[in-house]
Amino acid sequence: MIDIFFILFAILAIGGAITMITAEEPMYATLGLLISILSVGGFFALLNASFLFMVQIIVYAGAVLTLFLFLLMFLNIKKEDLPHEPKKYMLITLGAVLMIPINMLIFKALSTLPNIDMVLVESDFGTIKALGMQLYTEWLLPFELISVLLLVALIGVIVLAKQKSKKEIKQ
Amino acid sequence: MELKKEEDLSLGDSVLVTKLDTAVNWARSYSMWPMVFGTACCGIEFMSVAASKHDISRFGAEVVRFSPRQADLLVVAGTISYKQAPILKKIYDQMPEPKWVISMGACACSGGFYDNYTTVQGIDQIIPVDEYIAGCPPRPEAFFDSLIRIQEKSNRESILEKDRQHDRDFKGFLDA
Amino acid sequence: MEFAAVVIIFINILLAVNLAVGTTPIMVWWERRVSGFMQGRSGPNRAHIGGIRLGGLVQSVADMIKLAFKEDFIPAFIKHKMFFIMAPVIMFICSFLTVGVIPFADRLVIDGVTYTMQALPIDLGILWFLAFAGLSVYGIVLGGYASTSKFGILSSIRAIAQVISYEASMGLAIISMLIVYGSVNLSDIAEYQGGLLFGFIPAWGIIMQPLAALIFIVAAFAETNRAPFDLAEGESELVAGYHTEYSAMRFGLFQVSEFAAMSAASALIVTMFFGGYQVPWLNTQALQENINIVLFAMMIILPATIYFFTQWIKKNNTWVDENDPRAKESKILIKIFKGIAIAVVVILALLLLFGLGTNGTNIATAMIQVSTFLLKFFLINFFFVWIRWTLLRFRYDQLQLLGWKVLLPLALLNIVITATYVLVLGA
Amino acid sequence: MHNKVYEVSHEKVRETILNLKENEDFTLLLDVTATDYLNYPGHKAERFAVVYILRDSTFKNEVIIKTMVDDETLTLLTISDIYYAANWGEREVFDQYGIIFEGHPNLKRVLNHHQFVGHPLRKDYVITDGQICTETEDLMDEMRPLLKQKGYEEDEVMLLNVGPSHPATHGTIRNLLAMEGESIVAATTEIGYLHRGFEKACETHTYSQIIPYTDRLNYCSAILNNIGYCKSIEDMMDIEIPERAKFIRVIVGELSRIMDHAVCNAANCVDLGGLTNFWYIFNPRDEAYEVLSKLTGARLTNSYTRIGGLSYDLYDGFAEEVESVLRSTEKSIDDALSLIARNKIFLDRTQDVGIITEEFAISAGITGPNLRSTGSPRDMRQDKPYYHYDSFDFDVVVGSHGDVYDRMMVRFEEMIQSIRIIRQAIKQIPDGSIITDNRAVALPPKDQVYGSIEGMMNQFKLVFEGVKVPKGEYYSSTEAANGELGFYVVSDGSGTPHKVKCRPPCYYALGAYSKIIENTMLADAVVTMASMNFIAGEFDR
Amino acid sequence: MGIKTVKRHGDTLRDKLYIPAIVSGMKTTMRHFVTNIKDNSNLITKSYPEVQPTDITDRYRGVHRLTKREDDSISCVACYMCATACPADCMFIEATERTDGVDEKMPAVFNIDLLECVFCGYCVEACPCDAIRMDTGIFSFVADQRKDFILSKEALLANTRSKDFSDD
Amino acid sequence: MTTLLGYGTIAIILFSIGVIGVVARRNIFVMYMSIELMLNAVNLLLVVFSKLHQDMDGQIIAMMIIAIAAAEAAIFLTVMILLFRSKGSLDSDLFIKLKPEINR
Amino acid sequence: MSNELLLASSVFVLIGILLSAVFMLTTYLGPSRKKGANKNTVYESGISKPVGGTNIKFSIKFYIVAILFVIFDVEIIFMFPWAVNVRELGYLGLGEMFTFMALLSAGLIYIYKKKALLWN
Ligand code: SF4
Ligand code: SF4
Ligand code: SF4
Question: What quaternary structure, including any partners, is listed in this protein's UniProt entry (chain G) (predicted)?
């Protein structure tokens, strides 16, 4: 059962990713990424990291990608605004050809790791409660830093955006 | 009115199709979602049709759709001027099949007493009409009578028949 | 897997599917009839099959069949046909999935094995709801975007901005509930609410956290695009919004998913704030212990209700024209109801006579709880309809301001208070 | 009783009007129209005359300025920079008569479609000469300059057509909006979708045959139009109608006003998304229609008045039935207000939205509730009382901000005032006949027609020739539901009018609409439109 | 007589809280709901095809009819008065000699196009011999073809005064 | 299949695709999304290892990465808007020459 | 992840997909698609040839709202693990979270101050 899901998610994730890098229209690229991200979320679920699975869907799929989509509609990118990429497919193939040996190398290295064949299935692990306990005891500082980072991002965005709107008024 | 045409029903006399026809026609007749093309006084009287006293919802037809894509019944209520004609035509064309048209009131049916340079002398010069209602404006009751007649008419159709006959033959002055 | 497990999973899925899709015609009917009565008119009452109208419920069936057999038209100017086709499907599946996590009854113990009464027995029920409610916005966006209609695009933008403005407050409201319940599992949450506060008030979410309940309900309205937040399809401005170019069942699917989302929202509201499947003052244990008394009480209450109901039918379900098949409906209905009443009484009497056994008691309890849940569910639905026909629509920016400037700070404040209170009291 | 018509030469007319506005306080331009004197008995001078009707700020006096237009050039100087209202007024004259106003910012057709050739109200245009329109105009010729003036490029905004077939515009108004996001940067309004040639039709029908046509002007309150028209003809002929007729006219007129306001407020609530109010407000309306139907023989298009009086007397039990209508109206107003009056959502949606300032309203020729909502207590019923309106105890209702909220509340409150008037009038109604016995005006009673040869002859004469109105021109106005409804009639002494021009109150309000909604949001534009009560039959005629 | 300024709500705290006003609105809708569901006869709705309208009196301008004299012959004398008075021009009358000696003329053709007719009642008012009336009480006339709306003399004669009306 | 090797392979493939996207495409939007994809691949590995070692830290780091990615997305997209509005294109080559213009 | 859960969820998802497929397949039941130039035009209040594309120049405020949402969403997600552990984490956790929320509110207040949410 789990294997079926694994294969399904693998196909979706890779398919989505390939759609993303090959798509001409940003809209399709975004949806490709969405599928990819949802499948990665699926992997999380298979790995019992259920909370992370939710985080993936809520934050990545639900918020960040919505933002992307929003931006696309916002900018209303037309065909002529897209960069002209005549050699796109060639470059991608080239990249793929280059990446395969590197991948093989990593793959080799990976297979020498201990426990490599351990099946990652059962066990109750990754519940929100356990995660919370660890996060709020051992990861105190990074957690607070994250909040500072978010605050900075927020302020940064507003400063940037406001700057633009002032300019618009002047026009 | 000849609604059933022989050749269209070549496979159509099977019991299954007849049963299905009955069911679909029943559903269609009780789910006439109107698109009200109300322009003038008749449009105001159509408001009374929707108001509590007369209450069009009894017939399941209170789901007034403003997008022609979701409507089944075009109610033309009010005077149609030449300026308005292309719009009416367009709305009618944009409606998906099967569709019915009620022409409500003297103006829509024949121009009424506006026999002049600006009024279309009957919307049947532009689009095919299934039901005319006389009156200026017709009473809400008259509208219900024609709605009931449309319901009966829709019961005489077959799902095998793709185009309705009067549509096929129709040619208005805006059809190039 | 055992037979019992399969049956229970099957039943749960069936319940959830019914809640998501099966309730749509009922809710449409509910909406039309209730609004009719609120406005002093009768609402749909003519559609009938052989005279049977079921108070207009048949009308919804007619609508569904009509939509299925209507011409489904995809205009040629639509560039992204795929998006156009996918949009309603995405929206439907997202709304559909949200219903899966609702517990319909307490954990059922059969032969010593415990089964969770959820179609999707996952732990993170609430997060699941949040996630898929957020994802369903893709449906609206793609629909509006693919339609290439200006109304559609405007509506998509409104929809995104609206959903995202309220998801934050909704999340915060949920957090303050979690502080109280100490779990994200909806089954746990519902179980918790079986307790009593100060010994006599049911410990329902709405009583413990009225503010969070209010915020959550408002946000749920916004997330499901219901009035007064139905800006995305605000008819007076945007014609039909993102589904302006949709026809036939594609449009129908949008409607269905809207109602499924509403179902999910009301089911969640019931679970979080109105005690879920809990019968007030009778939690699962109490129910199981006193099952005989409960059954006996039901034996009296049910026929009595049916009696009053038939009286009402006799008085109100009339038809002017004697010869119409519809005129005979009342008699048929009354007969059916009387039959039901007798059957129920007989069954209950038999059960009481022969005893239930442990499994039987548990199943009976579960059934009572499912009915309680459904009852509450429809009451919340009624509330949705009631609100819709009372209030006006917000304006776009006012809605956002309400979300960001009123609900969000309130929710934050609520969290602070709740957390402090819980800790101080707990310490 | 004829009001004075001042003739001014066409070089002087602009100066005169400017002078009148600045020094004589004639701040309101009621109407601009023209007369084609072709075939007018005894007319020798130039063919066209342009007529300006002005009103002073107290609403007590009006003045008519007439100027003959040079046949060669057909050109006049525009006054659209003096009065905002002249913008559309002059456009209409250009459309219907082909008179060119020099300096007008945008002189194009307004009522007829853009493919129309010729000018229909000229006497030599054949009335039945219809012209097919194959497609709608794109309106960019109006939009482009506007955008330029605002400093926008054409592709920086979204151009959205709201109407004609749109739930908010009731099928007859088209707005082309240039939008940036949700806010409107520029707007143009196009009308004429319901232009039915009322004025041309009047020229081929007798004076009394016109009454059914007036029903269809503001079809929400047909009787008020009947009254307005008949009153102007009666004034023109200098006949008094019987007292009883006056009181009945007041009663049914106010009843119509209630219904008109009800329709407006109900539609407004629908546009605000509060659908239930629609049914609450409409409930008494159907009752009122029943009363009117029993009284006049038709529900909506009553054609109740006749020149010189009324067509039917009250029926038995009228007073009680009206009282019950009034009671349920009061109840429905209460119900509707309980849903909205204090609801913050409603208040946010309506307060300070679609604001009209008093100054702008006057300049744009906006009258009636829309003007009163700005705080200006101008009501023809009190400023120039007719039919003993001055003897009734009622208040003129004014608002304070001129926004959507004020307009709605003013309408609700005016409904209540109308109820007061009706109650008083019903008490005071005298006995007597309902139509004058002047046989040159009114048809003889039926028994006389059947019984006496004299009556028969009278009937023949009136039916075949119509009521003979003395030669001349005349403007008279009443307070209709939407504001000042005026009729400017030119008679050549025969039974058919040479020209009838209706001064529809909402034509000018609509002309100002695109200015009012600038820089508001789409949703606001919709409610603003609903709150100003644009009735297509009236502005398009 | 005076000037009344409308009240402006929204400044009080109660108004700003949203909830109280919403609750009072909900009370109103609920009140209607409860009264109507308790007893359906409280509904304003009239079930039309079964329940007929009540405002049709003999003043009501329904479909026309041509009256007959006592001897069952047509009253109309083809004087064209009605056609002249008709603003919609929807009457078509052709006169012919009357041979039965009752009068000089009678209509050979008397058509009314009900689709054009605006039901103003002017024809009735104009008729000098009470030959045309609109008191049939027929308030609804629908058909699916335009020619069905042209009522001929025979059809008009066949219409009768509505039985519901009292004799005056 | 659901072994470390299996998950590892998927993660590597996703990562590689991300790399290719960044290198091969000139559409700055797609480039950015490729980076997001790489982050996801890393996250996946983190979670796998966390599971392997039965230690929560991997998941917590993954969560932090998601948070940082969100913050980054916010800033990045804002800059994109500004650039796109001033430049009207999504070509990454254009942006390279842009440096002095940003501060304008 | 247990097999049961997987089974249940896959069945549930499958039913969802199946249902939407059924709904979609009804397309073929309806009447034929009548081609027509007019029918294939976009609905815009019945205007023959609407001008201008669907390019919407949104106000930058829309965008700010979206960003705001992303950031708040992340913050909320971080609060969930805390919320279920409030009792266990005790006052330390409380203090931690209050600091976090204080920073969050600071951002919010900054936005209010900057009037980034106000239209007009
Ligand atoms: S038929 Fe009569 S009521 Fe209807 S729109 Fe025409 S004039 Fe108005
Ligand atoms: S009712 Fe009026 S329109 Fe009809 S035939 Fe008589 S006069 Fe003509
Ligand atoms: S109906 Fe009366 S008016 Fe008409 S032609 Fe006959 S007699 Fe004359």
Answer: NDH-1 is composed of 14 different subunits. Subunits NuoA, H, J, K, L, M, N constitute the membrane sector of the complex.
